[in-house]
Amino acid sequence: DVKVTQSSRYLVKRTGEKVFLECVQDMDHENMFWYRQDPGLGLRLIYFSYDVKMKEKGDIPEGYSVSREKKERFSLILESASTNQTSMYLCASRSNARGYTFGSGTRLTVV
Amino acid sequence: EDQVTQSPEALRLQEGESSSLNCSYTVSGLRGLFWYRQDPGKGPEFLFTLYSAGEEKEKERLKATLTKKESFLHITAPKPEDSATYLCAAQGGSEKLVFGKGMKLTVNP
After folding, report:
1. Which chain B residue lies closest to A6 (C-alpha atoms)?
2. Which of these, A81, A92, A105, lies nearest to A12 by C-alpha position?
3. H/E element, B61
4. Which of B34, B43, B95 is opposite residue A90, by nearest beta carbon?
5. Contact A33 B43 (CB under 8 A)
6. Half-sphere exposure of B91 toward its Cβ, with a 13 Å CA cutoff?
7. How do residues B25-54 score in pLDDT, each as one tens digit?
8. Hey, is the C-beta of B23 within 8 angstroms of any chain A C-beta?
9. Distance CA B44, CA A33 (A)
């Protein structure tokens, strides 16, 4: 089975900090995605990548950037963290038979 | 625009009380309809993939079905451990899935 690993389960950061969320998949998948999940709003797509060094904006890219230097790793960057970016962040890798395989999530709190 | 709608948003059942969750979709050229289960504080876990109308998949107390406009997740004689949020997603012409907002199921003992 594909494994998607997110580096942190819980993070607490201060307003204005630069935050890096890391995601690694182990099955050579080309397509990777970053979502945030908030109560009542469901999953919202931040950024996605179809290949190394390629990225496309999702529905809510403001305040975020991404990096994909290697196929297996897709990083989400909060350039200057704000309290409205407190959320659950989910990374996913595209798997033909299963749609996505998700990581276990990172609960980010910005104080 | 592709869209997925789940209903109800939340459902409370007594243990053993069977019910169905609805997922309506409007997607051009459906390539797959997916169901996931998500426990609190965790990432969604894959349950089923359906590809064409009339298809059915089963796993323990869960059965997923698909029509041209809807998918249903039937839960037969649920147990408290079935309590979770259930997500439905559809794939059309893009590699991106379109998700519903989820349905929170609570099964009381």
Report:
1. B43
2. A81
3. none
4. B43
5. no
6. 20
7. 999 899 999 999 999 999 999 999 999 999
8. no
9. 14
- Interchain CB distance below 8 Å, B95 and A104: no
Nearest CA in chain B to A56: B96
Q: Residue A18 forms beta bridges with which residues?
A: none
Cα A47 to the center of its chain, rounded Å: 8
Tokens of B22: 């609805």
Q: What is the pLDDT of residues A17-45, one digit of tens each?
A: 999 999 999 988 899 999 999 998 999 99
* CB pair distance less than 8 Å for A90 and B44: yes
A50: contact with B, CB 8 A cutoff: yes
**pLDDT tens track for A68-78:** 999 999 999 99
Inform me whether the pLDDT recorded for B4 exceeds 80. yes
**Hey, how many other C-beta atoms are within 10 angstroms of the C-beta on B11?**
18
